[in-house]
Amino acid sequence: MAWFRNLRQLSPTTIPPPLKSTTPSFTFLLSHFSSQPMEVPPPGLSPTVPGQKPRVVVLGSGWGGCRLMKGLDTTIYDVVCVSPRNHMVFTPLLASTCVGTLEFRSVAEPIVRIQPAISREPGSYFFLANCTGINPEEHSVQCETVTDGLNTLEPRRFKISYDKLIIALGSQPLTFGIHGVKEHAFFLREVSHAQEIRRKLLLNLMLSDVPGISVQEKRRLLHCVVVGGGPTGVEFSGELYDFIIKDVSQRYAHVKDCIQVTLIEANEILSSFDARLQRYATNQLTKSGVQIVRGIVKDVKPQTIFLKDGSEIPYGLLVWSTGVGPSPFVNSLEVPKSPGGRIGIDEWLRVPSAEDVFAIGDCSGFLESTGKQILPALAQVAERQGKYLAALLNKVGKEGGARAGSAKDLDLGEPFVYKHLGSMATIGRYKALVDLRQSKAAKGLSMAGFVSWFVWRSAYLTRVISWRNRLYVAVNWATTFIFGRDISRI
Amino acid sequence: MAWFRNLRQLSPTTIPPPLKSTTPSFTFLLSHFSSQPMEVPPPGLSPTVPGQKPRVVVLGSGWGGCRLMKGLDTTIYDVVCVSPRNHMVFTPLLASTCVGTLEFRSVAEPIVRIQPAISREPGSYFFLANCTGINPEEHSVQCETVTDGLNTLEPRRFKISYDKLIIALGSQPLTFGIHGVKEHAFFLREVSHAQEIRRKLLLNLMLSDVPGISVQEKRRLLHCVVVGGGPTGVEFSGELYDFIIKDVSQRYAHVKDCIQVTLIEANEILSSFDARLQRYATNQLTKSGVQIVRGIVKDVKPQTIFLKDGSEIPYGLLVWSTGVGPSPFVNSLEVPKSPGGRIGIDEWLRVPSAEDVFAIGDCSGFLESTGKQILPALAQVAERQGKYLAALLNKVGKEGGARAGSAKDLDLGEPFVYKHLGSMATIGRYKALVDLRQSKAAKGLSMAGFVSWFVWRSAYLTRVISWRNRLYVAVNWATTFIFGRDISRI
């Protein structure tokens, strides 16, 4: 039992009672616990020393963080990622998963597939954890593991020292302090959200068929309300409408006349698009049967939305997509902020007050002192910043500035410049909008219709990160076309 | 507002306050609630009358119930299915979904795809509900809707009158009254179980990599224990082993030496198979590194299993598959039972004490008076019974015995005879067992190895019900082979 006593001494945690038995099965079992080579707990993530690679710590696993990790030169750096999810979500296709056009897994990309060094290199890690604090003086972050389900460990706290820290924590949905939104509405930002929306939608479809339900109650259950007319809200409405037309009418023929989609928006829908495309989208959605309601939500109760103008809207499913803002953790960080409360950064994406700390994506914004505009909270901004920063860190690393505190006098080269590539949104019925202008005022190509839809699908298919998921997205689209959407509620 | 007042009178349920507003958006919204044709609540499922088709009510959506529904002649009968899940699970492939070899949706088949009349025919329904009582005198069943998540309705009770009732409620896992099993172990019977196992496995893999975890705790977290050496337990162990060898070693290289699979069985593993195949499986699994422990579980605590011989086994994941027995609802039915507590049936699968009531699958067993052996709780038994009973009901229907109480004097034809087609089980590493003997004592082909594995895969691929899922299973297998298993924890 020497191995076991050693462990008792090594381990700082509470240890369950030792294995004890006198039967053959015990030695058999014990063989597992002792046959492996002795190990000491991982050396921990104390500051790196010569002989170790400098450590880049990435907080978050969204578009920004993942693009950065993908681009990092892992012969220079070790990569440590801290995130409550072990995959990146291909957000532009998330709306399609709610109705079964795509499978959930087709839009999720495991982080170790994006940067394989994380599982291969001895000094690179992925931790399923949340960051709970940053200490820029000490060059370290505090983290706490995520737990759920049966028999998990107590949340475990640990500290990671960094040479470079990248804050890529994203944003969270804005509710504008409206009462009841968090309790009763679904957001559409994570795969788990899409799964919940799907379960709810299918549950309502089935419940509405139960004998004795009044027509009014049936209509309420089958009234899908989307608040927010940005690309997410519009794409979700379009997908829902496709689902209703093609699948509900076949699979839920009893209730097909009672289902309805309503999109509530305070201003114009798709405000970032060309006015002509906005009109096209409005017309198409309305023609499809999606009701577009101009209004401001005042209050949300379990089965009814109250608008400022006094109207009451009964609903069965409520999806909330009115934009995003900084998370409480970002709010709590004591660093200079950009207008809008994001982490303030300079032209090289650095957090000026904290050496070796960078911020990218939705959680960051240019400081007023840079004279630059705050960039929109878009996947393409975060991705471009991640790509830029990976190149910057690789350059710094090659020039000997990879260690903590050693990049002060280096020339960082060209600052980050964002060039908008355009916007796309699908509106259902094999139609989409493509707006390739660099800004609202600029000139350039903008188009709408089937060709745009084809461009939209092709563009996203090539943007999906791994070949595996590219294959799955293509297979999903093909089977949806041939067999219809899957409606099993699992 | 005439439509609304009418609804108030028609509807027996509590009605939320009426829509009220004076703004344009109101009229717009109202148009949805009033533009559809007036409907009264569904006529309810009172006894069928001439002019309506006779009604077959099926309780359950497993192998038996689904095969029956598939075979029913829907020009003769209306079909009503009552089940808490709207899909059938292709159980033999469920173990593969836990480790990502197959996707969850590839093994789930929506019921309306199995019997499309359910969504098409005005008198056919699927209800997402549990049966709470059977009244054979009145020829009716009581049901209660399933609810979950946010804002669902209160469970709603309703009654369905039947002309023929088929009880196909399946079974539930046996825990032998062992304390802690229900709280701490996972079963492997539904897609949701496989999802939970997968989440837990991936969580443990990631938690075990957190700095400061003792080696002992790491080994505990990564110790996967399977209790029960039947086909499910063995297949799950084999799949887990494949996952460890091929994927964990690549994707979780840091912890790959700490993961271990143990299979606990009180007797021989795969006791229904040929002795030679049993030995082969034992050797192969042991060679793979799966520990097979002979022992009887006495108690299950959150992180430790206690065996009768006094040994204690720390675990991180516990899967329980020690066989199945009747559910509490089946136990509560006051009908003559077969040995083992199943619903007693005669040679034509009738419940003799209740006219027009049949029982098939795991929940039923031949009455002692028939002199027939109780059939094993296998998918192929349930499926064969479903097929037989569909043909019997179609014959009865054609001969004028479809209505409640009208089949008394009809000749039912040949009684049900079960012919065992053989058993198959995969044991990982491209190896499987195929035992084509009709019983343990009979002679016949039995084989093991790669060819068997190929037979196993081909056989199941052809058995998967829809072309859609057949395609997905094939694509899943191909991508697993090429890209490895998916490890995103969604």
UniProtKB/TrEMBL annotation, chains A, B:
GO cellular component: mitochondrial inner membrane; peroxisome
GO molecular function: NADH dehydrogenase (quinone) (non-electrogenic) activity
Keyword Magnesium tagged: no
Signal peptide: none
Lineage summary: Eukaryota, Viridiplantae, Streptophyta, Embryophyta, Tracheophyta
Catalytic reactions on record: a quinone + NADH + H(+) = a quinol + NAD(+); a ubiquinone + NADH + H(+) = a ubiquinol + NAD(+)
Cofactor entry: FAD
Cellular localization per UniProt: Mitochondrion inner membrane; Peroxisome
Residue ranges occupied by any External alternative NADH-ubiquinone oxidoreductase-like C-terminal domain in the UniProt entry: 420-486
Organism: Cucurbita moschata
InterPro entries in UniProt: FAD/NAD-bd_sf (IPR036188), FAD/NAD-binding_dom (IPR023753), NDH-2 (IPR045024), NDH2-like_C (IPR054585)
Primary gene name: LOC111451540
UniProt similarity note: Belongs to the NADH dehydrogenase family.
Documented EC number(s): 1.6.5.9
Pfam families: NDH2_C, Pyr_redox_2
Residue span(s) of domain FAD/NAD(P)-binding: 55-386
Name of the protein in its database record: NADH:ubiquinone reductase (non-electrogenic)
UniProt keyword annotations, A-Z: FAD, Flavoprotein, Membrane, Mitochondrion, Mitochondrion inner membrane, NAD, NADP, Oxidoreductase, Peroxisome, Transit peptide
Membrane topology: Peripheral membrane protein
Function: Alternative NADH-ubiquinone oxidoreductase which catalyzes the oxidation of mitochondrial NADH does not translocate protons across the inner mitochondrial membrane.
